[in-house]
Amino acid sequence: MFIFFQISIIRTQKNELEKKIELIITEKEGLSCNFDDQCDRIFMLEKQNRENETQLLNSRIEMDEMKAVNHSLTTRYVLANYFSIFNLIFSTKITSVCCYIIDWSC
Description:
Blueprint: H1 2-102
């Protein structure tokens, strides 16, 4: 009788261990799926990060080009204003000198 009781206890323990093994296997499979999903997400985020870095680099290059064009246009504008003022002053002086030489009232 005692042996049957021990066998019953051992079967119960065996069944409990099998249930625990099943739970552990199910948990492992869930963790494996979760791990795969996280790996895919990391891969996607790394790809997105590379794309963002490329876009940022292209934006910086474009901005530098625009700054260079802006600087060139600003220089041309300043020089054009300088020469127009210079021509205005120079032509006014020539007119004044001509008026003085010819004795016109300017």
